[in-house]
Amino acid sequence: MLTWLINCLVACALCVLLAGVVIPQILLIAFRKQLFDVPDERKIHKSLVPRLGGIAFAPVIMFTMALMLGVSIVAGLSMVEEYTSEVLPISFGYCTVMLLYLVGMADDLIGIKYRAKFVAQIVCGIMFIMGGLWLGNLHGLLFIESLPAWVGWPLTVLVVVFIINAVNLIDGIDGLASGLSGIACLYFGLMFLFIGDYIFAMVSFATLGVLIPFFYYNVFGNADKQKKIFMGDTGSLTIGALLCFMAMRMANCEMSEDLTHANPIVLAFAPLIVPCFDVVRVYLHRVRNGRNPFLPDKNHIHHKLLAIGMKQRVAMVTIIASATLLTLANIICSTVINVNVLVIGDILVWAGINIWLSRRAKRNNN
């Protein structure tokens, strides 16, 4: 395990270095070619900011993973066997990442309809299934255990599409999507190391590595000095696919004896609670008000925090800290509480927070 921990840290550091070199070059090209995310009444930022930061994500991660594999082969290390034993899920996983990477890039550069993005996401769900990563067991969620393939396969596609869109839609203020995703990647990396799924641990740490320099430029970069950048759909779709990849793998892992009391479904999806719950609430709100659920608005959790007077950075830190605490609480509680009771508790907590925020925002507006 120590060898793999070192390799994961090296992969993370290499991704930090490479992304730290690539992102400034993307900024340079974006400003020369006038490729900006233009402000409008729905968006929070007021300056011209490039939204092509996500272009760095997939190439840097894949270069790093390929380099680590090549070095392992040249050095004759035994870890090569770990790579070869995971060829099927990793191959199809990389295909999903590249597909959404290209779709996101097309959307950022020329714009594409959401129906086309949905088709691409459905194809990604199918490729997860082909790679052997599908929900064959809900581990008591909705009082369901094992699932037949004819139920598990369409459910997997639905979950993949849902998570990718949840990550995409939470990207509303500086540092929020990358911060939440970074915490999730760190969690998945440590969990995969703990249960001995080392290749997926390395993917998790590599993804964390590309998010760190992006977070710096996104949160602390100065738009007036041409140092600020957004991840765009290229980044959010890519990261959404990678988080699906990790969550599906976690849901299919054999848990060690130390984790036998924790519910595998909770372990797999706890880091994604905040974006998933937020997108459900927003969709229901749009439908209830007779609006198209796929058209954007300003009703996400971060918009509510801004409406009660929070600064962007304070709202971002509040949401990330809350998501981290909620993740830990769910994992701990899943050892002693039935998963259905736990989910109901999460829903009640989330609903209570949003009701309070809505009332507070309404008082502020009045």
**Strand percentage:** under 5%
Provide the number of structural domains. Answer: 1
Shape summary: globular
Order of helical and strand elements: HHHHHHHHHHHHHH
Structural Rg: 20 Å
Give the fraction of residues assigned to helices. over 70%
Poorly predicted runs = none
Count of extended strands: 0
Main beta sheet: none
Mean pLDDT: 87
What is the straight-line distance between the termini?
Answer: 58 Å
Structural class: mainly alpha
**Number of alpha- plus pi-helical segments:** 14
Topology summary:
Layout lengths: L1 H31 L24 H19 L4 H6 L1 H23 L4 H17 L18 H21 L6 H20 L2 H23 L11 H20 L12 H6 L3 H16 L12 H7 L4 H22 L5 H27 L1
Helix pairs in contact: 1-2, 1-8, 2-8, 4-5, 4-9, 5-6, 6-9, 6-11, 7-8, 7-9, 7-13, 8-9, 12-13, 12-14
Task: State the main characteristics.
366 residues; mainly alpha
Give a quick rundown of the structure.
The chain is mainly α.
Characterization of the model:
This protein is mainly α and 366 residues long. The chain has one domain (2-268). It is built from 14 helices and no strands. The chain has helices at residues 2-32, 57-75, 80-85, 87-109, 114-130, 149-169, 176-195, 198-220, 232-251, 264-269, 273-288, 301-307, 312-333, 339-365. Helix 4 (87-109) packs antiparallel against helix 9.
